[in-house]
Amino acid sequence: MNNKIKSIVTCCVFFAMIAGFMIYSIALPDTDLSKSERRKLEKFPEFSVKKVMDGSYLNKFEKYAQEQFPFRDDFRGLKSFVALDIFAKQDNNNLFVKDDAIYHIEFPLREKEIYNVAYKFNKIYDMYLNESNNCYYAIIPDKSYYTAQNKLYMDYNKLQSIMQENVKNMEYINLFDVLSTDDYYATDSHWKQEKLQNVVNRLGEKMGFKPADFNNYTMNTVGDFNGVYHGQLAMNIKPDKLNYMTNEVLENATVYNHETQKEMPVYTLEKYNTGVDPYNIFLTGPITMVTLTNNMAQTDRELIIFRDSFGSSITPMLLESYKSITLVDLRYISASLLKDYIDFENKDVLFMYSTTILNNSTGLKL
Q: Residue 6: how many CA atoms within 13 Å on its side-chain side?
């Protein structure tokens, strides 16, 4: 009889927990954004007979239930802990931890994507550039390059080889040997602005400008920074510090946002507490096109950079060497439209992309 009572009690507790989670889930207001994952969460799907019949309603509802589940981040953290620490898996959802830093597995090398990048660079050269332009391209290695994780290690040598053999009329600037894991955030994919002296030196050496001396800048700390990998892995990793560099040139610079057709600051510090990603303090994050003007310039040289998000933090450190720098993000604007906005004549041109973008180059628009 006692065993029967125990079984009944166990079943009642189990069903009470399920019912409690269901009631709490219904009562809990939906969350629009997951700041930890840097993305919008699924909303309750709109009901219609058609959507029920074709199965799309149930698919949407299933995703909604998964993303609006109570204590979701806690359960995600538990999953990561079990996968990495209990079962000793190499990764959890393509993320792994080494020396208190989080890395993403960008593997394998998609050779077709790299050939596609080379084609697009050459196409843009044919569309807009000529002998009046000094043209360069640089590859920003993913920080996992510096971990050499055996079979998880993408063939970066092959990537560089394909680019060098197929990109025409541009000089390659190798950044692989001037960076290390310490130059990247431990919890994020991006590099730290204050650690880019060697990168700026290499660009200056190859492009023929005098690089800025970081000793003449003031480093300012915004606060703790839990990067995108921290949210995706949902494990307790020590946060980074989010810093930015200033000097007289940057404080007097003019920054024009071609999307809003308004001026904006070099550093939008309110992005630290608002929006999805604190890294967006650098030039307000993803923007189709932005032009920085050095109002204290002692040169007439102008630069155009085709870039991804890494370009937001390094560009301020290049402005001292140019009269103006225009950034173009081909993820948000087609290259065929640039003739209406940019005069390419006699400009330096730099294509600078991370290996993650190059390995998924379909998103770059011609």
A: 3
CB 342 within 8 A of CB 95: no
Taking CA atoms, 146 is separated from 103, 122, 177, 230, in Å, by: 10, 29, 10, 19
- Cβ-based neighbours of 311, under 8 Å, separated by 6 or more: 305, 327, 329, 352
Is 0.85 surpassed by the pTM of this model? no
Helix axes of 111-128 and 156-166: crossing angle, nearest 10 degrees? 30
User: Which residues sit opposite 95 in a β-bridge?
Assistant: 92, 104
Answer whether 282's CB lies under 8 Å from 267's CB: yes
**Cα 250 to the center of its chain, rounded Å:** 23
Task: List per-residue pLDDT tens for the chain, 366 residues long.
Answer: 566 676 666 666 656 656 555 564 555 566 665 555 566 666 767 767 666 677 676 676 566 555 555 655 555 555 555 555 565 566 677 888 888 999 998 889 999 999 999 999 999 999 999 999 999 999 999 999 998 655 567 899 999 999 999 999 999 999 999 999 999 999 999 999 999 999 999 999 999 999 999 999 999 999 999 999 988 887 888 999 999 999 999 999 999 999 999 999 999 999 999 878 999 999 999 999 999 999 999 999 999 999 999 999 999 999 999 999 999 999 999 999 999 999 999 999 999 999 999 999 999 999
The amino acid at residue 237 is I
- The gap from C-alpha 336 to its chain's centroid, in whole angstroms, comes to 24
